[in-house]
Structure formats: structure tokens, C-alpha cells
Amino acid sequence: MSVSEEVLLADYRGLTDVALRRSLEVERGLYMAEGAKVIARAVAAGHKPRSVLCSPRWVDSVASVLPAGTPVLVRSQEELEAITGFNVHRGALAAMHRPTLPSLGDLIASARRVVVLEDIVDHTNVGAIFRSAAGIGADAIVVSPACADPLYRRSVKVSMGAVVQVPWTRAESWPGALDELRSLGFVVAGLALEPGAVPLDQFAAAHREDRVALLMGTEGDGLTRAALDHVDETVVIPMHGGVDSLNVAAASAVAMWELRTSA
């Protein structure tokens, strides 16, 4: 094994340790794309791979989508698991260079529907929200400073690569970003079980032609009081059967669908 391969393989070691990966990936400016389809989407979005690690059966399908000169490290399925710490059942991983995130103003310059995530900590939920945004048609996503990393391996995988498809950025100030959205012409709607909250269908009917930012809160406690103090309206999804709310990923999909714009 050459020294260069040793250096490249270090990017893939211990992928199951979230805290370690967050530190190393941010420090090295990398994120992980898993599976040939996700890698292809990342490359198509203009993201540059540092290297690819894959089993022999996936070499041809992965290599066909890579820029010329991308190092491809081929290892057996057993070796992949030993290196990464988990079963790489999709057979391929790519260490991708992280793109530079746009400013909030640049991100939403032409957007009509924006989803804003406050402090959502579950990477699966973040990935699912991005996938819904891509499928239903939200224009952009803004994540709060404490929100889980959309480019963490689990988020990328669950989103099926939508995190490289849907434009997004991380807010530099919070809840100041909400005021910036309002100053740029958005109606900021916080989904919350608050007294006086407007039913989602009524809100959608009243704001069909407006630019709308949908604010979603963390899994346990929902939106913080600080965030709620910076919204234009609170909105609720009417529920039945003694259920008071949906999982944040499901709620975001319902809200995006209700507020969808024509293509």
C-alpha cells in the first residue's frame, strides 16, 4: 500500500463515530457520499471527489461517473467494513470536497418557498426533509447554527443525494436569520402547537402568492420561544385520533405539499 493510499484511507476510518466524523470532516473540508447513485448526483452537482472507496463489483459503475484522475481504492466487502466500522451494503463511498455555502441573501434571491430548520439533531430527519424538499419542490433550505449537518453521511444517504440537489446554507445568526428573511419579503410561518395557531390549509389559501418560509423545530420541544418571537404567524396541522403532532420530517412534507407552487 502506498503512502498516498494510507492518507486517503484515513478519510474513511471510524465512520460510525458521529462526533469524530463531524470534527474530521469539517477540519478536512469533506463529506461522505454513499452508493453509486448518490456519488453520481454529487458529481453532477459540481462537487469534486477526493477519492472513492469501493468493492470490486462497483468499480465500473462508480468509475464511469467520476472526473478523470479520481483515485479509486478497491477493497473487499470485508475490508470495507473493517475500515469504516459498518457494513457498506451499497458497496461504494466517496470522500467529497465540501462546497462553499452561499449567503442567505444569495440563496433565496429567486426563491418562493423556503424551509428553515431550527436545531434538528437527528440526521435521518434532516435527510428526509431534504428529500421531501427535492420531491415536492421547495426552493431552498436554511439550517440554524445548531442544526445537524446535512452533509453528514447518514443525512446524505437518507436524502438519496437530495442534500446536493436542494440549495441550502447555514444561518450565521439565530434567530436573526428569521428577521433577514422577513426583510427580504418572506412571510415566516412557524409550525407550532401555539394558542391561536392558524390551520395549515387556511394559511396556505391566504398566502398562496406570497414568498413563504416554513420554520420547523427540533424533535422533542419544537420551536424555541426565541424563534417564535420572530415569526409572522404560527401554523398548525389539524390532527385526529388524539395525536397532537407528526414527526418533524412528516410535518415538513405535509406543509410543503400544502404550500406547493406550480412548476
In brief, what are we looking at here?
This protein has 263 residues and is of the alpha/beta class. The chain has twelve helices and eleven strands. Strand 6, helix 8 (153-158) and strand 7 (168-170) form a beta-alpha-beta unit.
Short descriptors:
single chain; alpha/beta; 60s Ribosomal Protein L30, Chain: A; Alpha/beta knot; seven-stranded parallel β-sheet; four-stranded mixed β-sheet; 12 helices; elongated
The global form is: elongated
Give the ordered list of helices and strands: HHEHEHEHEHEHEHEHEEHEHEH
List unreliable stretches of 5+ residues.
none
| Class per helix and strand makeup | alpha/beta
Number of helices: 12
Distance between the termini: 52 Å
Largest sheet: 7 strands, parallel
| β-strand amount | 15-25%
Determine Rg (CA atoms, Å): 20 Å
Q: Compute the average pLDDT.
A: 93
Walkthrough of the structure:
It is a single chain. With 263 residues, the chain is an alpha/beta fold. It folds into two domains: 3-97, Ribosomal protein L30/S12 (60s Ribosomal Protein L30, Chain: A, 2-Layer Sandwich), CATH 3.30.1330; 104-258, SPOUT methyltransferase, trefoil knot domain (Alpha/beta knot, 3-Layer(aba) Sandwich), CATH 3.40.1280. 36% of the residues lie in helices and 19% in strands. The protein has a seven-stranded parallel beta sheet with strand order 7-6-5-10-8-11-9, sandwiched between helices. Strands 1-4-2-3 form a four-stranded mixed beta sheet, sandwiched between helices. Strand 5 (113-117), helix 7 (123-136) and strand 6 form a beta-alpha-beta unit.
